[in-house]
Backbone:
């Protein structure tokens, strides 16, 4: 059984996730729980793994493709002293996973 999962607008930069995407394709889903990346990336990947396991109702799942696309970004305004403004750019990513596994 092959399923396709699409996670839209995750609050992490495209450049940070792109370097890890090559490591995360063609592996079993249990590998997601033993990662040692930064805390924010680990948290997002574990949430993704839990949702996939709950949807398929099995732990015998293998990730075939881990694709990353650029999501939306917006400028957040920080007001400073003396009438100055700083802009902070918030970036998001979209993740597409092709998964195949066996039901129990």
Residues:
């Amino acid at each position: 059984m092959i399923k396709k999962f699409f996670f839209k607008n995750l609050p992490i930069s495209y450049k940070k996730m792109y370097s890890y995407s090559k490591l995360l394709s063609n592996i079993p889903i249990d590998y997601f729980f033993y990662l040692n990346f930064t805390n924010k990336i680990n948290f997002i990947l574990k949430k993704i793994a839990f949702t996939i396991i709950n949807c398929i109702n099995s732990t015998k799942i293998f990730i075939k493709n881990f694709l990353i696309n650029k999501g939306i970004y917006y400028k957040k305004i920080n007001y400073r002293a003396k009438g100055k403004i700083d802009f902070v750019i918030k970036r998001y990513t979209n993740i597409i996973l092709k998964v195949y596994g066996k039901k129990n």
Notes: The first strand starts at residue 2 and ends at 10. Strands lie at 2-10, 27-28, 61-79, 85-101. Residues 6 and 46 are 15 Å apart (CA to CA). The domain at 1-99 is CATH 3.90.470.10 (Ribosomal Protein L22; Chain A).
